[in-house]
TrEMBL record:
Species this chain originates from: Syntrophorhabdus aromaticivorans
Lineage: Bacteria, Pseudomonadati, Thermodesulfobacteriota, Syntrophorhabdia, Syntrophorhabdales
Name of protein: DUF364 domain-containing protein
Domain (DUF4213): residue spans on this chain: 21-110
Residues covered by the Putative heavy-metal chelation domain: 129-276
Top-level lineage group: Bacteria
Amino acid sequence: MAPSYQPGDILRETLYEIQNVLGDTLETLTIERTVIGLFFTGVKLNNGAGGLCFTPIKTIPEAVCCPSSARAMPSSGKLKGRKVIEFVQEMFNGNPLKRTMGIATMNALSALCWTQRPPETYGVKMGVDALDVVKIPDNAYVVVVGAIIPALRALKQRGKPFGVLESDPLTLKEDEMKYYVPQEMVHEKVPEADLLIITGTTLINDTLEGLLAMRKPGAHAIVVGPTASMLPDAFFRRDVTMLGGVTVTDADRVLDMIAEAGSGYHFFGQGAERVVIEAVR
């Protein structure tokens, strides 16, 4: 059966796979701690597992004053002790912060799945950055989705044309604007790509499935960032070749850092490790 490219289906399928692996254990898990930081949102489960997700501050128009912010996150102060299953089920109600917390929770649950059922059809490599191992053919045209700084730096050094899809072009440097792909050209440029390097943030705004559906036959795609740190089966069914995410090894330490506006530069090697997930060939 051909995979669906409907928005949100990758998350739905991944949640179904998590439920299959964990079974009744899922009903016993609760949230011990939640931090919504400036750059990342993190959770710690009552069994110690932790997970992260990008915090999409710019997509939350309510975050401008106290009354409207309260509507954006009405459960503040009441999250500790809630069942994990509630967090992941609320991902699909249209609230960006609940989507973010749900994804962070799914990433924590995915790490738990790997301990209970080690992967057989794919490999999980710790301490590896996907952008360091991805192979870019010399003549490939690359499209980067999101202002992924290491990818942009490497592509600029490569010295060949590429494209950047970014909802906020102000995040790009002056010398990167010549590669910028405006929204009206997305349907033209994505099908030209031989390789797509896609930020995991597309899982939050429901654009990942659509981008993957636009690829030309034979084009490769990788999804990177702490948000994309979950079971990979739903991605691989859509011919994503690699996930580059993060595994939390010390949840409290990482949550302390993101509570102080920490980013990956702060927590890599200090409670979290980069991870590459690839299909076994």
